[in-house]
Structure formats: structure tokens, C-alpha cells
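Same chain as my last thread, 265 residues:
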Amino acid sequence: LALNNSNDAQATAPAAAESATARRDQPFSEACTVEINADSGAALPPTTTINQKNTGQLYEDVQRTWNDIKFVTPDGKKQTFVLELDIHQGATRLGTIEILMRPEVAPNHVRNFVALAQLKFYDGLRLDRVIRQQGEGDAAGSKLVLLEGGSPAEGADPASSHLGYWLRPEFSETEKHVEGTIGACLMQTEDNAETAACRFYLNLTAAPAMDGNFTIFGRIIGGLDVAQRVAETSVRDADGGPDQGRPVEPVVIRAATVRAMPVVE
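reply #2:
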């Protein structure tokens, strides 16, 4: 699988130091880092997002609300969250994509994306890239289709697609990238394991080469047809470069809403 022309890149998966259960109640300071490898190519985040939110304030608000996002109710019952993305393209409402969050796999990534959604970070941002790749050689029959979204800045530049902090990886040796998988985008660098921030991807095909190299934190439970419709939209450049996969007509997340949901065991 070649992702060299996308905003994602394969990472070397570190050995899991602790289970998802052990990470469930980690504070922001342990789940995230505010320092990144000098070779990562990271740039300063934009001062304001596309939807005119102050990135410094968002950073502080994520820290402030981090511990308020609970995966166990006061009466001891497990809960998760469902994220609903209201998707529009131009004057056309395409529909809603429903994402079931998976704290049993990646609690810190779930907490981060839930916090950002509650803070309205994603409202007005975009599904900013459509990746369509056909395998070559022995993989000639394989195909990769995925969407990327959540860049705070115009142009989806991965170097500045963050808010001043990055999530430590929660890679899994058992979770597989199948149709409907949701995971965290990484920067395209040689050592990029700790470059997940606020961007995410939606798999519309299986992608075994991504297994263990990206953090999976959710799956689509409704609106898969909406995501597939976005994947068929016309893009500016399909062959690489800064405009690779960017829809000709922007695909906008009009609103991202979150609701808690009990875990049925």
C-alpha cells in the first residue's frame, strides 16, 4: 500500500506499553505530548481555524474538558459515544455519517475527538481529501479508498493540522482496517507515530497495510452511503501534489454532534 501522496504515512508500530483499560483514565499530560520530533516537519498551527475559532483557546478547552469525558457512568455502567457528522456539498445536504466511538481500543483518541466535537471544532470544517489508489504488481487487484477530514486550515496542510498538541499512539495488533473504519491521520514523515492530532480518516475499503500502523478509534454505523457518495466526487488532482484528492466543490461538515450511548455487553 502506497500512501506517499496522501497526508497519511505508515508508521512503525511501537509495542503496546499498556492496555486500553489502563489508559482509560489517563490525564491529558500522559495521553498527549506538546513536543514533537524536530524531524517531523511540523509547523505552528493556524491562529484561527477555517470556522474562525481560536486554536490556542481550543487547546486550553480540550485540556479543561478532558477529564469530564467519562466512559463509565456514575452508577458504574460502561458508556461510549456516537459522533454524528452532518455533511453538505454546496447547497446540497448529503446526509449524516454516524460514528460509533471505540474507547475499548483507543480511549485517549476517543476522548480527544469527543472533546473537539463538543467544542464545535469540526463545525464548518471539511472532508478535505478523497484518496483513491489502485494496487500495482502483486497487489494489482487491490484498491484503497478513504476520506480524510478535520484540517483546521485551508489546504489541509498536515504540518499545521494540529492545535499545539499530539496524541500518543494507541496502535492495535488485533484491530483491522475494514470498510467503515475510523482512525487518526498521521503526518507524512519517517518517524510519525506521535503525530496524530485532530484529522481523521474514514476507510471505504479494507486496508491491511494500515493495520497496526494507525490508531483506530471508531467505525461507521450509519450513513456509509453518504461517505461513499463523497468518495465519488470530482477532485482537483488525483496524481499527487498539494491538491491531491481535494474535492472541486468543498465537502463541509456543517455540524458534528455527540451523544452518549450505553455499552451492551
